[in-house]
Design brief:
This protein has 245 residues and is α/β, with parallel strands linked by helices. The chain contains seven helices and seven strands. The chain binds guanosine-5'-triphosphate and magnesium ion.
């Protein structure tokens, strides 16, 4: 019996990517949820048409750009509320290859609660990236290793969550709603003892559309990382699930 699986994709101005991505992922035995944050480039209209055409596709429109982490939080909440057993999350810009989805699932079946795509398991996994982005990604990886003590690639969104073993309350410990959502959520999962697996991915740079990653996101992430390392010491319970009585 296969697990009831949802694939979640956040979108913001992904006009040229959204339909081909949707076609690629609906090839799998899974439902698909898009959360669009008021894209102004026609993405929202394309999604509405796809939701009418393809029975397994669902779209949620939010009023404005609330942040990529906020979209993931809502996607995760939706998956629990709607009764899915497993959730796969990925970007819309084809940087997370749809054809690698079976590998995430296979890895998860080996006894992992969470599986993440890692760019750091093999050399040369950032083809076509600017030096700036390569440095940024490596720095993020170094900091999450040193500050949070996690060996994983914690800043990516290509993930599998097993919802039957990870209780939903874990995610209410995650406060970030921007990019920092990714490393904060993985840290909370790691600290609460959930088993995290990795599959090696190469991350090509996007070919269509524009990046939504900017300097203010980087500074916010750095600030949160410092906050987290401080709270780790001053508020030891901050990231931990309360033991149920
Ligand atoms: N719903 C929603 N989606 C977002 C938001 N910001 C980014 N996204 C989507 O989240 C995914 C990741 O965003 P990207 O812009 O690709 O970020 P990145 O991968 O760090 O940067 P590049 O690949 O260089 O563009 C994409 O599918 C975006 O469309 C947001 O505020 N709300
Ligand atoms: Mg991207």
């Amino acid at each position: 019996v296969s697990l009831k699986t949802l694939i979640f994709v956040p979108t913001y101005n992904e006009r040229d990517n959204v339909e081909p991505l949707c076609r690629a992922i609906t090839a799998y035995d899974a439902d698909v949820l898009f959360i669009d944050d008021g894209s102004s480039d026609g993405t929202a209209e394309i999604l509405n048409r796809l939701a009418l055409e393809v029975p397994q596709v669902k779209v949620i429109h939010r009023a404005g750009k609330l942040g990529v982490g906020s979209a993931h939080f809502d996607g995760i909440t939706y998956a629990y509320r709607t009764g899915y057993d497993a959730l796969i999350t990925m970007d819309c810009d084809f940087t997370h290859p749809p054809e690698r989805i079976p590998e995430l699932i296979k890895k998860a079946s080996q006894g992992y609660d969470i599986v993440t795509g890692s760019r750091h398991l093999q050399a040369g996994s950032l083809p076509g990236w600017s030096l700036y982005r390569k440095v940024l990604t490596s720095l993020g990886h170094l900091l999450t290793r040193v500050v949070l003590g996690m060996p994983y690639d914690a800043t990516g969104a290509f993930r599998y969550y097993r919802l039957t073993t990870v209780p939903q309350e874990v995610f209410s410990l995650v406060e970030a709603r921007g990019y920092a959502f990714f490393f904060e959520s993985l840290y909370v999962l790691h600290l609460n003892g959930f088993k995290i697996g990795e599959v090696a991915i190469a991350l090509p740079s996007r070919t269509q559309g524009n990046s939504k990653m900017d300097l203010s996101e980087i500074f916010r992430s750095l600030r949160l990382l410092l906050m987290m390392s401080y709270q780790k010491i001053t508020q030891p319970g901050r990231f931990r699930l309360k033991k149920s009585a």
